[in-house]
Amino acid sequence: MNLITACLRVKEVNSLCYKYSSMYEGIYAARDFVNMPPNELTPRKFADAISELLQGDTARVACMNKWAVEKLQMGGIIAVGKGSMNPPQVVTVYYEGDAESKEVLGLVGKGVTYDSGGLSLKSAANQEFMKDDMAGAATVVGVLRALMLLKYPVNIVAVLPLVENIPSGMAYHVDDIITMYNGLTVEVKNTDAEGRLILADALTYAQEKGATKLIDLATLTGACVTALGTVRTGMIGNQQEWMNTFFRIAEKNHEKIWQLPSDAAYDKALQSRVADLKNTGGREAGAITAGMFLKHFVHPSVPWLHLDIAGTAFQETPDETGYYGATGVGVKAILEVLRGGRSEG
After folding, report:
1. CB atoms inside a 10 Å sphere around CB 325
2. 85, 173, 204, 297: least CB-packed within 10 angstroms?
3. Is residue 17 part of a domain?
């Protein structure tokens, strides 16, 4: 909590007010997108809305349609989007706030605008609230919207893979083997483990576009909700210092994180006899093995952390204030990381 006292000058008060009003504009933008019904937020409509919201002096938006994605051979995104009459889109946003710096933060957000589970169909009860499966992408959009107002001297490349995971005669199957954008082959053992497939291609693309650090956000696994409930976001990464920095700043800004283990032994669950990887390691340690899957698509020299916001992105029941729905989780923490984690004193 920040207290505005008599010792603060008018300029400092104005600066604080502008910072928090900009931050909450980003949070409300993320919430609004997540709360939209899925028939009003198809991949194409989401891509168009992002372009309209973020196009500006410091941000540049590029959209790829289904044919462009197929030409690049983004196998994960192509496979997951095959079943829907609403074809996949990939939105890339470049925020250029410091032309002198070569440091570029890559932000990748899962953008499944509706997740039925595909041919591995969820139960009717488990399909409720699956409009929130694009909350990772919405958080990234919220961060960028706030940055356009705050004008921090940082560089961002954001990659947002947008798909619907719907069963049909065109849908991808269990036991398919798909070739990912980075050339690895993946044996599909569950079409409801789709988020990691689109994120993997997006992570590869973000590094290709110059990302020197990475954060991905995704409502990725029910296993994370089982482990941490709706209180904390799960975190896995490849460099402890980067994870420690994010944990400290997130906690200070009232966004609770918990680091999950990532021992090499967990990787064994993803071994396939017929491909480089399986897309799921089974029920045991599901949040961990999902994160470990993504690690295969990040160069070891690039600091990366994965945030599983499955439990924290959406409040399904009203809290003590009566609020329910999308939370915009992650916007505050990422903005503070970009600001350098300084406190106001």
Report:
1. 15
2. 85
3. yes
